[in-house]
Write a structure and sequence with these properties.
With 208 residues, this protein is α/β, with parallel strands linked by helices. The protein has a domain of 143 residues: Rossmann fold (3-Layer(aba) Sandwich), CATH 3.40.50.300. Strands 2-3-1-4-5 form a five-stranded parallel beta sheet, with helices on both faces. The longest helix is centred in the C-terminal third of the chain and has 20 residues. The chain starts with 11 loop residues before the first strand and ends with a helix. The structure holds thymidine-5'-phosphate. Thymidine-5'-phosphate (TMP) binds next to helix 1 and helix 5. The site of thymidine-5'-phosphate has 14 residues, from helix 1 and helix 5.
Length: 208
């Protein structure tokens, strides 16, 4: 199942860790559990910048943007996230472990469904993280989790989440081939069990 090929460059950023997965896979919950650890900076995409707020408003369906506009906004937000003063690269260079809830794979997966090659072009120059946690979940289970939420977003329906999972499964091994350490986690496991696995990996990286 290698239909989608990432052309992302192979340069990796040391101490940069990314969580990815479909909606309802629990990436945000796991990141929340890492907050406050010494020398760990937790962050997320879309970010809390003005661009990120605009994106979140589109995700909630409050404004309608052309899918390609949204794709470009995600990469503009990412550019600031990475390269702004105090951003990902700066913090990694200062010795912090930066843990981000989502990164380029989210664009290749989600925007790839609607915009073909555009997300691949817009994201090819961004560097790779050192470590990726892929929280893999059956979309049926994820949708049951999501259905209990009050604030639903535009990608949160079963057919879309099935495409999302398929694309992650195709793209994640390609990151591995490019030198990213990949940990695939069964996201239907209890939160505490996942958190233990995550903590082990994060603590090992902090000691390096
Ligand atoms: P969250 O709900 O996990 O915070 O993520 C927000 C949504 O944005 C989620 O459905 C994934 C989506 N997303 C993209 O479609 N492209 C991206 O590049 C990013 C970072 C997120």
């Amino acid at each position: 199942m290698n239909d989608y090929l990432t052309n992302q460059k192979s340069e990796t950023v040391k101490r940069f860790v990314v969580f990815e997965g479909g909606d309802g896979s629990g990436t945000s919950t796991q990141i929340e559990l890492l907050r406050g650890k010494p020398h760990v900076w937790t962050t997320r995409e879309p970010t809390d910048s003005l661009i990120g707020c605009l994106i979140r408003s589109a995700l909630r369906g409050e404004i309608t943007l052309h899918p390609e506009t949204l794709t470009r906004l995600f990469s503009a937000d990412r550019n600031e996230h990475l390269f702004a003063k105090g951003g990902v690269i700066d913090r990694c260079n200062q010795g912090d472990l930066v843990v981000s809830d989502r990164y380029t794979l989210s664009s290749l997966v989600y925007q790839g469904v609607l915009c073909g090659d555009l997300p691949f072009k817009l994201n090819e120059d961004f560097p790779l993280p050192e470590l990726l946690f892929f929280l893999d979940i059956d979309p049926q289970i994820a949708m049951r989790r999501i259905e209990n939420r009050s604030d639903r977003e535009i990608y949160e329906y079963l057919e879309f989440q099935e495409l999302v999972r398929e694309r992650y499964k195709s793209l994640v091994p390609q990151w591995q081939q490019k030198g990213v350490r990949v940990i695939v986690i069964d996201a239907s496991e209890p939160i505490e069990a996942i958190a233990r696995k995550v903590a082990q990996e994060i603590d090992a990286l902090r000691k390096e």
